[in-house]
Fold this protein.
Amino acid sequence: MRRIVYLLALPFLLSATKSEAQSFTTQYDTITVAAYGYIDIYNKVINQTSDTLRVHWRVIYENLPQSWEDSAAFGICDNVTCYDKSVLTGATLTSDTIGVGKMMPFKVQLDVTSSSVPPTTSGPIYVSFELSEGTTVDTVTFAVNKWATNVSRVNNTKEDISLYPNPAYNEVNVTFSKEMGIRNVAIYNLVGKQISNYRVSTNSAKLDIDKIPSGIYFLRLIDGNGRVVATRRFTHQ
């Protein structure tokens, strides 16, 4: 599913071939939001098949403040309905039918006005999802920074990042746009504990993961201001 941008010709062709067989794709892998009050954060799930389909999804990681979860404005929405905080337990939900070539809005809605997170906190706060249909499995992440101003901004970063191989064995490679200003790449486990942190000075990094246990991890790309610009999930075998 990942769009490979900075690889050499052969890996790019292999990735493109894999993408053609996917039943769905998402508009963005990671959406980074700077929010002040209420905000709707949209992604889209796109049916790439010649038939209708339904997508299964579940929350795989979140660190939302309790006040955000308890807000009446909170919701995670597909084309069936908007769900309350009970969906954060990780239960699997199934969308309604997505037509051939159609898009399903996938949304997180938040009100960060009355929050226990100090206005000066750079964040970010995450909600990550796993989406699946047949053999197609993908992850999307919504990352929120609370601003002390009344401006909300969304920065979508799908095309700029490549992570390979996935699953990974002894090492994992990541490439990204220079314009993203990435200065650190950190690996976290599923419960949010940092496993390792790497300083980078170019638009790529090769990470040694030989000594970390097998499992599922999140790779966080951090800019010079300490803000997480994007998150990617990978499996270490």
